[in-house]
Design goal:
This protein is an alpha/beta fold. Helices cover 38% and strands 17% of the residues.
Amino acid sequence: MKHNFRIHLECPGNFMLPYLLAGFSCGVCICPDTPIMDIALLLNATYLDAGTLVDLVDILAVNPGIAGQSFDSSVLDKVKWLRAEHKVQHIMIDGGMDELTIIQAAQAGANVIVSGSSIFGKNRKASDGVEMVRDNIERLGNLLRQHGL
C-alpha cells in the first residue's frame, strides 16, 4: 500500500522530495482564493520514472482552520478544469459539504469528498457521526446515481 502525503501550496519550502524518495504519493492542497494555475507546474511535473509528481489535488471550499463554514461554490470551476484537463487521478474537495454540495462537487468532477462538520456537527459525539454516515451511505449513493454520478 502506498502512503499519501499532501502539502498546502501556500506553505513555504519544498517538502515533497524526501517523501517521494520514501515511496509516498504526493498531493497538493490549495485554499479557495488560490488560482488553479498556481499549481500548473506541479501538475505537469514528473519524478524520475515514477510518473507524475502529484496524483491528488485537495481543493479547499472553505478557509482552513474554522469548522462549519459555508461552501464556496467558486471552487467548482477549479474542479471542472482539473477533470477536463485530466491532470490528476484524485480531485478532493474539502469543506462545506452537505447533501447538496456533495452532488455539486461530484458533478463538477470531484472523486474524493471530505466532510467534517456536516457529519459530526458541533453537538454530536463521533460515534453519532459514524452512525449517520452508515445510515446515509445508501441514500447518498442513490442521490449520486440519480444525478448520473
